[in-house]
Fold this protein.
Amino acid sequence: MSEITGNEKLGMGALFRNQVIRTILMSMLFLQIGIWVRNYSILLFVIEKTDSDPIAVSLISVAEFAPIFLFSIIGGTFADRWRPKKTMIWCDILSAVSVFIVMLTLFFGSWKVVFFATLVSSILSQFSQPSGMKLFKLHVPAELVQMGMSMYQTLFAFFLILGPVLGTFVYQHFGILAAIAIMGVAFICSAAVLLMLPADPALTEEKQKTTLVDEMKAGFRYVWKRKALTLLGGCFAVSGLAIGLTQPLGVFLITERLGLPKENLQWLMAAFGVGMILGGGITVAIARKIQPQVLLAIGMAASAVGFIGMGISTALWLTLAAQFFSGLFMPCIQIGINTMILQNTEESFIGRVNGLLNPIFMGATVLTMSIAGWLKTHLSIVYIYETSAILLIIGIIVLLPLLKKNPGSIGLKEGL
């Protein structure tokens, strides 16, 4: 890991001089282009082919999110076994190959093969994403980790706004085949950029001799015996429950609380995305001064305030302001979580910790998403949004034991 001294270690110049951060951000740029072109071109293509069949449309989400449950811990375990640079490059190459196979099949076979592109790239991301986290742990100085994560989340937020526009434009003007070709080229460009990463460290003989099942069990024990990670898992679960309650119901804020046409939902999404971009920039500036667990608590508290505002509001400007406020602090949540994982996890367990914690959040989110519609038929949307705010406050309470500790004093000093 490179050494940085003096004021340089805290500056933006040092951040962008770090080769790993620059390379991962550039790789993410290409990946986001490919992912958003994929998401929207395939969505519009399926809608067109099926005459808006809701089952076919829902299968796109199944292909995108099911691998998180099925492959997250497996992918995280393999990410710990394999060399991270090599893993990320091969994942991008295989994603590109799968995309070009889909394009060839469209010439001669069924259009339904487009689901395969989403499924394969989603599965491969379960191997690639934890490998990227390992690279941060291996090559990025501790002083720059939180700032690097801030830049990562800012770029992600930027594509929340630009991505749907880009994907829709490509499909409407060039068609599905051109969209698939762009996906493949984007994945190849990402793989090419990753070649600039430092060489992977050699694997130890001990790691090579352990079995996959043994390593998965060790991952469970590792999380269970570290207070910081178990509390973070509890925070994940409660936060997922809160997000899942409100995720499907935004349109009812527009139609019921505000009495406006459903098309105005786009302004809620835009307000959230703009808030995330600005919040990401602000977080980059302040991240080095605030402990990640405090950053996470601030983000959750702000989201709770935003949910309360959206629930009680009957004016469009107030609803947009509350949504913007939530988006402004969302990077605090994402950056705080990722930094806490990195600071409280040994490099050899990064993949498995990610593989265990991410499904907790997704599972909780899907659980409450599945009952949100039923709750809406029995309760006012105001009560549902206020319940989400209460759940986020409970998540902050779960984090309280960590708020009085220094990041370096938790997690790593505890034994297996």
In short: Residues 142-194 form the longest helix (53 residues).
